[in-house]
From TrEMBL:
InterPro entries: ARM-like (IPR011989), ARM-type_fold (IPR016024), Homeodomain-like_sf (IPR009057), SANT/Myb (IPR001005), TERB1 (IPR042359). SMART domains: SANT. GO terms for cellular component: nuclear inner membrane; shelterin complex. It is found in: Chromosome, Telomere; Nucleus inner membrane. It comes from the Eukaryota. Component of the MAJIN-TERB1-TERB2 complex, composed of MAJIN, TERB1 and TERB2. Interacts with TERF1, STAG3 and SUN1. Interacts (via Myb-like domain) with the cohesin complex; probably mediated via interaction with STAG3. The gene is TERB1. This is Telomere repeats-binding bouquet formation protein 1. One of its GO terms (biological process) is homologous chromosome pairing at meiosis. Belongs to the TERB1 family. Residues 454-473 are annotated as: Disordered. Meiosis-specific telomere-associated protein involved in meiotic telomere attachment to the nucleus inner membrane, a crucial step for homologous pairing and synapsis. Component of the MAJIN-TERB1-TERB2 complex, which promotes telomere cap exchange by mediating attachment of telomeric DNA to the inner nuclear membrane and replacement of the protective cap of telomeric chromosomes: in early meiosis, the MAJIN-TERB1-TERB2 complex associates with telomeric DNA and the shelterin/telosome complex. Residues 401-435 form a coiled coil.
Amino acid sequence: MESEDTKKTQEMKTDLNLLLECLKYQMDNAFSQKEALVTIHSICQQNSNASVYFREIGGLMFVKNLAKSSEHSMVKEAALYTLGAIAEKNVYCQQTLCTSELFEDLTWFLSNDSNINLRRMSVYVILVLVSNNRTGQTLVRETGCITVLSRLFRTVISKHELDLSDKNVFQSYQLWSSVCSTLCVCVNNPQNDENQMFCCSLFPHANEWLKNCMTPEIIRPICSFIGLTLANNTYVQKYFVSVGGLDILSQVLMQLESDSHETLSSAKLAVVVTKTVDACIADNPTFGIVLSKYHIVSKLLALLLHESLDSGEKFSIMLTLGHCTEDCEENQYDLFKNNGLPLMIQALTESQNEELNKAATFVLHNCKKITEKLSLSLGEYPFDENETQQLKDINVKENNLEEHWRKAKEILHRIEQLERERNEEEIQRESYQDTISSMNISIQNTWKHLHADQIGQGSKAEDEDKSHSRQLQSYKSYGVMSKACTNDDQMKTLLKSANPVHACYRESEQNKTLYKAKSSCNQNLHEETTFEKNFVSQSSDHVFKHPVHIAKNIKQQLPVTDPFTLCSDIINKEVVSFLATPSCSKMLTYRCSGCIAVEKSLNSRNFSKLLHSCPYQCDRHKVIVEAEDRYKSELRKSLICNKKILLTPRRRQRLSNESTTPGGIKKRRIRKNFTEEEVNYLFNGVKKMGNHWNSILWSFPFQQGRKAVDLAHKYHKLTKRPTCAAS
């Protein structure tokens, strides 16, 4: 796989080098240069590393110079298209091309009477260089390129009636649409306040287009341009309202909403206009008074009921409703009058989308004051006589709304209560976890102290009986007080704060929880009483196993948030402190020796003897002793049945088998004389390796059965008899 990738990379580099040479040596052939540029573009689109390599070999700068110096228009168009595609594919190429010189050349292409295709390619390169690049946004303003783009925005399409079936008109529209997109990236992503201030001069022209040509081909680009230019800039928003832009958007929205009942595209287009309106009033809620003149709230509510809209589009409409009603009582009343509150409540209760729920809550919160005013007195609301008459006519409808608003208040109150209880629960959980962690640390320290005392204690049984009885009495008295926390009043208080989310379910299940908690607490009391009796009677098995058993049962029966866990932890703490007293040392002598002897140096021999000599073995060590005895008995049986079993290592047994016969007589090896070749091997090995007989044996093909000792003996014999060695 790696070899194939390497081969493809090498082929790509070879192709780019050849194509670059073709561009250099085919200056007189415009068609060949165009074909080479198109091929380079195709290679760079297919392979992400091709753009980087093409920049490294100088191809990027050559294509840029070719676009400037070529006399053929088709070569310039192909060169600009290739530059834009490479810069769009690789950010390093984008930074390399982002120079004032290139922006000046592109401005010159746009200013001259160039053909539409060349200007489109120039606008495309500007779009790629400026997108997500603050340096490009600065250069497009400083070189005057944005001024040329603004002029093209005004003049490319001169008539408000578009006939896109005409080829020339369609090409002009494509250029104008590209200019709109380029202006959008000049003012936003990232946001550029200077470019926004410059582009706001185009608002009057954009308003004229919206007023005279309500087609999707015009509304979508202009709404995108207006929305991005307005975003997060209060000065530009005020200017847009001052030139009548918000009024025109309201009129367009009204027309599109009325058309949405017949065509689906009008509903989608109305959502686009709604987003632009929201961008205008988001930072200035007082501008909502302009929308109240056109009753935009009622139009948005009607648009919200459209079945073809998805959740994202409905969220945009609800967010616009929230900004409309945030600081405008007229819009709040309009929402109230057009059954907007039941619609918000329905969205809040039925929708599973969190963003929609937040937007609906935002709208309900904005209408809280106006609802209180209307509930006090409808006649006191400052409207004209016509509005008052309308209020009287729709009293029947608004009586139904009072019920919906009551439900809305309950939902809001429930939300606030849930948030408050959740905060209290988090605080309580943190404090509870801190208490548990500190309690676990104290228990571990107590057990360590207990094990340390087990080894060094002697026979102090008589003096310690009195302290044992006193500790037992204090344990009983403290255990009774710890159980006093489980009365009904405290249980109700703790259970109410245990789970704030399921409020209704909590009330219905409260009695069951109380009954289970009381029964579990009674069971613990019974177990503690049994433990005390067993401790007095010195039953060694229950003394050490019973406290741990109580703790495990409590953790299994009750969840972490159960209030009775606190009482059980207090009981456990008292039991551990009681076991740590010196009176308990008398009972520790009856424990298993394998469990007590933690500091003795034990091994496989003395540990087995220790376990066998202990009369108080625990279950675990008892199983170990039984398994060991069973294994030894089976081993003895096998030795008796088969006396040939030898408990010697394998290597020693193998060597003994080789050196002895079945009768016990040693067996000699068969003698093999050294051949002339072996003698030569021996001398050559000594000459190269010295007296390293093992190395010589493994380096030359001696006969099978030769050993290093044989080579050494043979060499010494040969050196003592030189005549024999010579022969």
